[in-house]
Amino acid sequence: MLGSGEDVRPPYQEYKNWLDGEDVKRLHRKSAEAEAFLRKTGITFNVYGEDEADERLIPFDVVPRVLSAREWRKLSKGIEQRVRAINAFLYDIYHRQEILRAGRVPVELIANNAAFLPQMIGVNPPGGIYTHIIGTDIVRTGDDEFYVLEDNARTPSGVSYMLENRETMLQMFPELFAKIKVQEVSHYPGQLRRSLAACAPPRCEGKPVVAVLTPGIHNSAYFEHSFLADQMGVELVEGHDLKIVDGRVAMRTTEGYTAIDVLYRRIDDDYLDPLNFDPQSLLGVPGILDVYRSGGITIANAPGTGIADDKALYSYMPDIVEFYTGEKPLLENVPTWRCSEKDELAYVLEHLEELVVKEVHGSGGYGMLVGPAASKKEVSAFRSKLINNASNYIAQPTLSLSTVPIFTKKGLSPRHVDLRPFVLVSPNGISITPGGLTRVAMTEGSLVVNSSQGGGTKDTWVLEE
Amino acid sequence: MLGKTAASLFWMSRYLERVENSARFIDAGFRISLTRSASASDEWSSVLKSSGVIDAYRAKHDDFESAKVIDFLLRDRDNASSVMAVMKKARDSARTARTALTREVWEATNESWMTLKAAMAKPVKEQDLPETLGLIRQQSALVRGATLGTMLRNDGFNFLRLGSFLERADSTARILDVKYYLLLPSVALIGSSVDNVQWETILRSVSAHRSFRWLNGTDISAQAVAEYLILHKQMPRSLTFCYSKISDNLNYLDINYDYKSRSAELAHEICSNVLNQPIEAIFEYGLHEYIVDFIAANNRLAAQIETDFNFQDRVG
User: Fold this and answer.
1) How much is the ipTM here?
2) DSSP code of A284?
């Protein structure tokens, strides 16, 4: 909220004026109300490995994170460029592989990568779109310095929090929205549905039938799956509701089987099709990939998009952007050391205390080392893991992430945040909802914002021009 | 609508109805244990029988001490049909059918679960029991109110209603079955005060003791009680009332789906054969036999609904 000195940064000025006139007691009360409101909604997530009955609420902070219209324009241009490049890259990597021939990305990085699906080679996804939904993780380190941390091109989650956080703020502080003009986010579900419907497969007849595929009520993100299906007004299906009828994927309804045209799947590639991928999977639909290849269904995101957000590939993103758009990247990549390379590994081992080391295929903040926050013992334990399986890791510097105040028992206090804007891609263009999900490291000084590690969220405002 | 969603709506309302009925049974049993301690064991045993958990209870306890029975029925983890276990199933079903529920119905169900979970986190003391049972009934009323006030009158609503009334009919029939011997005409007992209290307990288990008196005055007879619970057209927990609602909802589904379901036919048969006879004929046939037949028919209808509306994938 504060700039380089003690001045309030311009986008926060109006909020600060309002806040100064507020009674702290009222804010405490509102904070508790917000929690009760969210709990009633059922916006909880299950933590894996804990008692199934334990559903946790992601901590919600009542102080919004504010971006100016100018900041947002810059960010969204950069994201759009990156998303365009990712789709072009995916098309290329599953077709002629020009980028490998040009030597800009090493062949072995693709060929030996579990996220690369040979089954997708030569497949043309309907509408030419691979990643219909992307959630780009952004961090800020200075006034005009934004870095892309991760591209999340598989099944990004969190958009329901973006929407419910805004809903909660509107309930708690309606007067704020009368004073400060904030850009809307509530059109997202409608846009998502239109965007998915615009990618109907060749065999679709009439109005496209869209459905959301969930692993079921015990999945940690089930709330979001049912929320999105409900808000879009489409069915929420599980693998056992589906089977292949006349070359189409069809859902069992009270009146018989109905073909689905576009499936927004919220399960990983591995589980999608036991005939083509993991034969143990009970979550998917046997044979769906064959229907997909014959133009009977659109799968969003397309199978195999994981190759684009793979952490081993991340360090090549600036080249990828340039290769396909012919432009310099508008958003920075975080400098990354590839532990698979000998020299870089040596550097990483020497500087472990300063670096963040991540598993190439990890997610959710599991299995990573945050050097400056780790104990000597943790660092040395990680060191041996790293030496034993170097190519499984990448390392990045600990960035001095920007902070945003949260409302604590003792008043306002700064915490590190990141930002995940949500991007929709369809043949009609790319649209980015103004705002996104701001995740907060709730512990003072911590840099880990993942909800699985106790991170919280707050509403994200992009101001009107 | 997905077959799975229809199934979840159907079961969600069955479970909610079951929770509410359990609260009534416990209430009636508790009353007897307070006012007539000599017959408390018998009463608790029949409550456990009506709830279908007598065997599970016997496996764990040797006697029918009120505190043990109450804890078993409300929250014991060894009882898969405890109020809390069934409430959890209701909420899970609601979560599965979330897209077919209004925000109000979902939130009422979710809040009920949270409220009851908090109220029953520890064993409920006897002095707090009336309040806890009241809370259960109040929470059920909230969900029902949200359902009636906000749901579109579509197929989803029909499945919710079918679940409620099938469960309710089953529950009323079970109480009658467990107590049928009390209702058999026996010259020796007629007019004795023992009978009156027992009969009243039956009426109390279905929240009908007041309405019965309004209709019949103090003239309480076994036949009148049985007739009231089986045949009365306006009594909302009678078998006849439940079946008129079941029939209506199946007819709506048939119209909506432009379909002639076997379920609607079956419901019609139960209405016109099983329920369309004078109480004298039922007694002549044998009240126990009659109720056993009814429960079986009710189960057949539930299975038929499951088949007709694709609740599950049929093999082949």
Assistant:
1) 0.86
2) S
Q: Any idea where the domains of chain B sit in the sequence?
A: 1-151, 156-316
Read off the pLDDT of each residue in A245-262 and give the average, rounded to a whole number: 96
B62 — contact with chain A (CB < 8 Å)? no
Give B-chain residues touching A53 at CB under 8 angstroms: 88
Residue-wise pLDDT tens digits, B9-25: 999 999 999 999 999 88
Cα B19–chain centre separation: 8
Q: Closest approach of chain A CAs to the CA of B115, in angstroms? A: 10
Query: Any idea which fold B1-151 has?
Result: Four Helix Bundle (Hemerythrin (Met), subunit A) (1.20.120)
Residue B48 and residue B54 in contact, taking contact as beta carbons nearer than 8 Å: yes
Q: Which residue has the tokens 């043309």?
A: A124
The half-sphere exposure of A286 on its side-chain side, counting CA atoms within 13 A, is 6
Q: What is the largest CA-CA distance in chain B?
A: 60
- Both tokens of A343, joined, read 């020299």
Label residue B211 by pLDDT band (50, 70, 90): confident
Cross-strand bridge partners of residue A413: A406
What is chain A's Cα-based Rg?
22
DSSP labels, B23-64: HHHHHHHHHHHHH-GGGHHHHHHHHHHHTT-HHHHHHH-SS-
Of B98, B110, B310, Cβ closest to residue A226: B98
Q: Which residues in A lie closer than 8 A to residue B114 (C-beta atoms)?
A: 39-40
**Whole-structure pTM value:** 0.90
Are A230 and B107 an interchain contact pair (Cβ–Cβ within 8 Å)?
no
pLDDT tens digits, A400-423: 888 899 998 888 899 999 999 999
CB contact under 8 A, A254 and B96: no
Q: Which residues contact A44 (CB under 8 A, 6 or more apart)?
A: A55, A56, A57, A223
Q: What value does the mean pLDDT take over residues B274-290?
A: 92
Domains and CATH numbers, chain A: 10-334+416-462 (no CATH), 335-398 (3.30.1490.270)
A50 falls in which pLDDT band (50, 70, 90)? very low
- Using the predicted structure, report yes or no on whether residue A143 has a pLDDT greater than 70: yes
Distances (CA, A) of A200 to A131, A193, A238, B182: 14, 11, 20, 66
Distance, in Å, from the CA atom of A250 to the CA atom of A248, rounded to the nearest integer, reads: 6
CB A126 within 8 A of CB A296: no
Retrieve residue A87's tokens. 């789709």
Structure tokens at A418: 């990141």
Residue located via tokens 């929407």: A163
